[in-house]
Amino acid sequence: MIVHIGGEELIRATDIVVILDCAMLESEIMSEFIKKQAKSIITIADHDVKSIVVTNKKIYMSPLSSATLRKRTQTYSILDSIEEY
Hints:
There is one protein chain. The strands form 2 sheets. Strands 3-5-6-4 form a 4-stranded mixed beta sheet, covered by helices on one side. A two-stranded antiparallel sheet has the order 1-2. The mean pLDDT is 85. By secondary structure, it is of the alpha+beta class. It contains 2 helices and 6 strands, in the order E-E-E-H-E-E-E-H.
């Protein structure tokens, strides 16, 4: 399934590794990770980043909250389960 993560960005739910709250940017470990992956970052919202979506290949700075994105991925997971029947 495809997940809308803000702006015009759509990604496959299966590609998502983790969805993090933007408060994680204050963490020293996360800051270091972001610096090392600078070339892979796609900023969807310049001024209002609420979550970080890490995929296999890219990191997205999303204007949608991590709770909203989590709900969307859970909904798609449930739909996938129904389709398997």
